[in-house]
Amino acid sequence: MLKRIFILLLPLFFFDAQAQQRTIRPGELWPDNHGVHINAHGGGILYHKGTYYWYGEHKAEHTSAALVGITCYSSKDLVNWTYRGVALPVDSQRGSDIERGCTIERPKVVYCPATKKFVLWFHLELKGRGYAAARAAVAIADKPTGPFTYLRSGRVNPYCYPANWTDTDRQRCDTLNAAHYSQWWTAPWRDAIRQGLFLKREKDGGQMARDMTLFVDDDGRAYHLFSSEDNLTLHLAELSTDFTYHTGRYWRIAPGGQNEAPTLFKYHGRYWLITSGCTGWAPNEARMFSADSLTGEWTQWPSPCRGPQAKQTFGGQGTFVLPVAGRPEAFIFMADVWRPKHPIDARYVWLPITFRDGRPVVEWRDEWSPSTFWSH
Ligand code: DGJ
After folding, report:
1. Does residue 281 line the site of ligand 1, with CB under 6 A?
2. In this model, does residue 6 exceed pLDDT 90?
3. Interior CA angle at 268 toward 254 and 45, to 5°?
4. Atom of ligand 1 nearest to the CA of 131
């Protein structure tokens, strides 16, 4: 009898054979409960009822195109992660928005208390069209692990001007003539971009939406923050009460500043934004901004990164800032070290954020543990 029980339980030992890890080692392979390097790139984390859920892009050996979908892992301690499967699979149907081979990037999930749904947003590029579609896509689920039901994708906030624009701002934008600015990167072109040249261009079809994150404020309002206007300007867009639509209210951040990889968090009543520049898969220096209100004004600060390769964000590009549950002072900066020639081998740089003179600092550590870092 005992022998039988042992044989029955054997698969459990086998599949959970991975020894418990104690530390996060930024940039190293990060095995899940099966001993397989975690495959959840450009990801974000949801904390729900005592468990963290990590959603990310599944990457293949030789392509960054989506062949599988959005994966989900769960953890109680932020170090040991259990693979929970594909939360949103790609579609085998030809012509589907999320057809296998499309591009799915930077998925983020939030919980909507009003509908009791888990809401997933991601950046979607249609199969075979490079980065031209620049769409935001949304899906919902009843459970954090999914399965998520795909709802729709599209450009964002058509026919809308930024919520804080004055009549003068609108008129100035309306009178911009694209024919005068055919040459990019000139001083007049930069001025026109700041005044909304590309915003005007996309106004009827909806604004472009690429690199993105989600943020739920203390008052329960949810926001979608994304690189828009050909990656030249960030848009912070308010979401509807069910979190699945844009309300039409949005604010531009750092017009013409070329920010990608936005991450947003709130510390002591102040909003902090850590972004990257635009250099494809190659790392660049992180940027940081703060504001006392989500609607701005935003002030730019030097990069928060310190230590070896700090000027290159430690070889990575930010994807999310995770507020550690139950510790109002504790945040983790999450970044991806991309490997475009071998995408599945991209690495994760997770580092604790400390605060100096009230400002975030992200200092390199070879290894560290969330359970001891903030325990003093
Ligand atoms: C940088 C972005 O941050 C990534 O999400 C991805 O879109 C790459 N560019 C593609 O080059």
Report:
1. yes
2. no
3. 70
4. 7
